[in-house]
Description:
The chain is mostly beta strands. It has one domain (2-140): CATH 2.40.150.20. Helices cover 9% and strands 37% of the residues. It contains 2 helices and 11 strands. Strand 2 and strand 3 form a beta hairpin. The longest helix has 6 residues, at 2-7. It is globular. The model has no long low-confidence stretch (mean pLDDT 91).
Amino acid sequence: MARALRKRKKIGPRRRIARGLPVGAKIKCSDNSGAKVLQIIGVKGYRGPKNRLPSASVGDLVIVAVKEGKPDLVHTVQRAVIIRQRAPFRRKNGEVIMFEDNAAVLIKPDNSPRGTEIKGPVAREAIERFPALSGVASMVV
């Protein structure tokens, strides 16, 4: 699935980033789509050893269940992109980045964001993979 999306230029290339968010993690939703708390239930394109929990990092496309928020969104399954993680990860230029919280934004099937603004900083790795996020991001780190 991820390979097909990259061929159609919907998302950018995947970089090797420390995976800090396993399946089951509850994360904050940082956009104004109406969701507040999301729980990761799957990671698109994850390939790992048998019986290992899939985990996600900044810029990954994840399948989430909405746990808190507007009544029409709660208990629904959505797609989201991780924009911040607390686990430190290293960039190509050597700097180590770590955010204060774990956060994601909900996206539509065409990989554009559902909300019209993103609260807080967004990692540059997420913007490189999903360029549509740059239009609604308030700050890119």
